[in-house]
Amino acid sequence: MSGRGSQLFAAVRELDLPIGHYAIFGSGPLIIRGIIDAANDVDVVARGAAWERARRLGEVVTLTEHGVDVASFSDGAVTVGTSWAYGDVDIDDLIDTAEIFDDLPFARLEYVVRYKRAAGRPKDLEHLRLLERSGYAPDRAL
Question: What is the number of domains present in the chain?
């Protein structure tokens, strides 16, 4: 993993969010698996105690284009929110089924595929192509 990915995940680790109440989502699960290079930021979905901690520690802003409140850290390099702007995601299941890598919880790839298909942005389509090229079958998405 690149230095930037390590920095992003270290920033998440420093928040000391309670395991079982959050998961790294967005491109994070692809970065940790080496499928894509590190992005400029990392997204975290949280509930309960993790959201309360993030809300207390960070600056809460509303992403008006998505109607989502997030707590922002490290000049926006880490955002923690309670919902996801794209697709129909069961946040509780996403968090409950997270896979642990390097002591951090990451959303399963099935959720990442679903969200990237729903978003359909050029970068998401490229990520889906790279994911399939890595050997993962995107049709296994939930």
Answer: 1
Q: Residue 39 and residue 77: Cα distance in Å, rounded?
A: 9
In the three-class reduction of DSSP (H, G, I as helix; E, B as strand; rest coil), residue 134 is classed as coil
The pTM is what? 0.85
| Integer Cα distance of 51 and 97 in angstroms | 18
Name the DSSP letter for residue 98.
P
Residues 86-134 pLDDT 10s:
556 789 999 999 999 999 999 998 888 888 788 778 888 888 888 888 8
In angstroms, the CA 93 to CA 20 distance is 11
Residue 99 falls inside a structural domain:
yes
Helices (H), the chain: 3-14, 28-32, 48-57, 91-96, 109-119, 122-133
